[in-house]
Write a structure and sequence with these properties.
Layout: H1 8-14, H2 16-24, E1 28-29, E2 34-35, E3 50-55, H3 57-72, E4 77-81, H4 82-87, E5 96-102, H5 108-119, E6 123-128, H6 134-138, E7 141-144, H7 157-178, H8 185-204, H9 207-215, E8 221-225, H10 228-244, E9 248-252, E10 270-274, H11 280-291, E11 296-300, H12 302-305, E12 313-316, H13 322-343
Parallel strand pairs: 3-4, 3-5, 5-6, 6-7, 8-9, 8-10, 10-11, 11-12
Antiparallel strand pairs: 1-2
The structure holds fructose -6-phosphate (F6R).
Length: about 350
């Protein structure tokens, strides 16, 4: 049941401290600065030359997030929309690791991409929530995100658990390839250990609800970010369009001036996800948007909060490492979408035209 919550989505949003605890359980040795994934014997990934993520929708955004983390470790990585990968497969061989990210493990596009990757000779790894799902039968290896069952059509707790699991996997791959733990591993793993408590702080903060109450019913909603925060921006927009039926789009902050800025008016609130180390450029982008009259909402840590004080709304998240900050920003955006959809009277757990699992392309 819904345990007293009006919707499964709100229940699942509130379950995230616990689902993340399950995802991370036994896998993080923060003191030693080591990731412990017994699924993969030592050296499993030492021959990997490139990583290709294949996934759809929310899972694709988790793959994008992971690809930017691996790239930062110096490992060539890219996230493909699985449907596009299956139609137009990129070069892959035995030193390519193809990671299929799929909550259900049943998404047809993703299964097809895995088949294409296998026939090219690539190694395949499933990152999924469902034990015994089709993707686990199609892939060489598997890593379970352990988020628990998700009933709401909109993916919430499975996204945060995917990102957490992929962060561990990324550290592990980088460690095997380079032979050493990454420079930031200890800080990152300490931040991940704090994540369940940090998510609880976000859930106890009422700002997302106030922003939804102030801004629901506008013409459109835009979301921008850079690097991993670009994936968070895309996910924020996907959640908003799915459950509120409002027009919502995510853009790379760098893309804004190359077209999307023409859409900005006083009736198009724009959310900036500022979770990187240096966000000077994104802050400047947001000032330009504000000068065109659009309400600007910044989701950020205390590190950038004073520089962002010009914004119409600042939604704060606890101070943490950038890789973990994106997860916290995502939870705030889940809440904004949820409350906006609720104020608009939408059927939040079963949005029109959508299915929880897309088994036909
Ligand atoms: C969005 C959503 C969809 C799924 C997509 C992939 O909230 O739920 O975009 O993320 O259909 O599904 P899985 O992860 O099961 O492959």
């Amino acid at each position: 049941g819904k345990s007293g919550y009006p919707h499964y989505m709100l229940k699942e949003i509130n379950e995230q401290p616990e689902s993340l605890r399950q995802t991370l359980h036994g896998r993080v040795d923060a003191l030693a600065g080591k990731v412990d994934l017994p699924e993969f014997p030592p050296g499993t990934f030492e021959d990997v030359e490139q990583v290709q993520f294949v996934a759809m929708g929310t899972s694709h955004h988790a793959g994008m997030y992971a690809a930017s983390m691996l790239t930062a470790h110096g490992i060539p990585a890219h996230a493909y929309m699985a449907g596009e990968y299956a139609d137009c497969p990129p070069p892959a061989d035995g030193r390519t690791l193809v990671v299929a990210v799929t909550q259900s493990g049943e998404t047809a596009d993703t299964l097809n991409a895995v088949r294409r990757a296998r026939s090219a000779g690539a190694r395949t790894l499933a990152v999924t929530n469902v034990v015994g799902s089709s993707v686990t039968r199609e892939c060489d290896d598997e890593l379970f995100i352990r988020a628990g069952p998700e009933i709401g059509v909109a993916a919430t707790k499975t996204f945060t658990s995917q990102v957490a699991a992929l962060t561990l996997l990324g550290e592990r791959i980088a460690g095997d390839v380079t032979g050493v733990a990454s420079a930031g591993a200890r800080d990152l793993l300490a931040a991940l250990s704090e994540l369940p408590g940090d998510v609880q702080q976000v859930l106890d903060d009422g700002t997302a609800r106030e922003v939804a109450e102030a801004l629901y019913g506008c013409d459109a909603y835009f979301f921008i970010g850079r690097g991993p925060a670009y994936a968070v921006a895309l996910e924020g927009a996907l959640k908003m369009k799915e459950i509120s039926y409002e027009h919502a789009e995510g853009f790379a902050a760098s893309e804004l001036k190359h077209g999307p800025l023409a859409l900005v008016t006083p009736e198009t609130p724009l959310f900036g996800v500022l979770t990187g180390k240096d966000e000077t450029k994104t802050l400047n982008n947001l000032k330009e948007v504000q000068a065109r009259g659009a309400p600007v909402i910044v989701v950020t840590t205390p590190r950038h909060a004073s520089a962002a004080s010009f914004a119409d709304y600042v939604i704060e998240i606890p101070e943490t490492e950038p890789e973990a900050a994106g997860i916290l920003a995502n939870v705030q955006l889940q809440l904004v979408s949820y409350y906006a959809a609720d104020l608009l009277g939408r059927p939040i757990d079963k949005p029109r035209n959508l299915a929880k699992s897309v088994t036909v392309e």
